[in-house]
Amino acid sequence: MFQKRKTQFIQEKIALRNSYDKEILQSQVEVQNHTLQYIGRELHDNIGQLLSVARINLNILEETIKDPEYEEFIKQTNLLIAQSMQDIRSLSKSLDGDFVKDFGFYESIAHELDRIKKTKKFKTELQIKGEIYNLGQEREIVLFRIVQEILNNAIKHSGAQYIVVELSYQINTFVLTIEDNGKGFDFQEVLQRSSLFESGAGLKNIKKRAELMQFSCDIVTAIGTGTKYILTTSNLKDIQ
Question: CA geometry: angle at 178 spanning 173 and 182, to 5°?
């Protein structure tokens, strides 16, 4: 009886700890989502508006200055501002969680990869296997944030030229794979780093957020072999 009570106590303690960790992580995800939404709207409303005013002023200069040398300079600057406005609109959309809710998980990832491709520094590809189905609003938003973080890591650290995302919609399982052809890294060495700015906190955070959404997260990498993230769930009964 004592052993049975002891075992039950330990199980309850573990369950409470897991519940607490889940609530903390969920709160962090919500705060991050709200923060990114705010930044996206500020970029769109304030920076976008300032660029619009600058473009109007350039148009006025273009009409008044007839010197061919200056006219060409003004036209080039106008084109740069127009491109900047387009990039800001694209970025603000990707920061807004409502974009995923309104347009869907697949479309949001396609938009993100297209934005990266437009930098002309990376080739990107989105592959679909199976028939697309809804994974649940909250789950898709968190997964999209995870994808963004993984893509950001690839852009900043991998030295890759090619990034491919695959969404595999199976009957009982959903698999999200993100792979790059970069330089890779020593996974265990990164996890053991003690420096705040070089630690594996980002990788651990990706895994924890995946677990929150009942996904396993495997990271396959080695120095010189690129990096592959595999997120898998078979817990689909509540979303289909």
Answer: 155
How far apart are the C-alpha atoms of 40 and 95, rounded to whole Å? 5
| Ranges under pLDDT 50 in the chain | 196-197, 199, 240
Is residue 95 within 8 Å of 37, Cβ to Cβ? yes
Counting Cα atoms < 13 Å in the Cβ hemisphere of 136 gives 14
Contacts of 56 (CB under 8 A, 6+ apart): none
Q: What are the residue ranges of helices labelled H in the chain?
A: 2-42, 48-64, 68-95, 97-103, 105-117, 137-153, 187-191, 201-212
Contact 94, 108 (CB under 8 A): yes
**DSSP symbol at 86:** H
> How many Å is the Cα radius of gyration of the chain?
23
Distance CA 123, CA 164 (A): 8
pLDDT of residue 104: 85
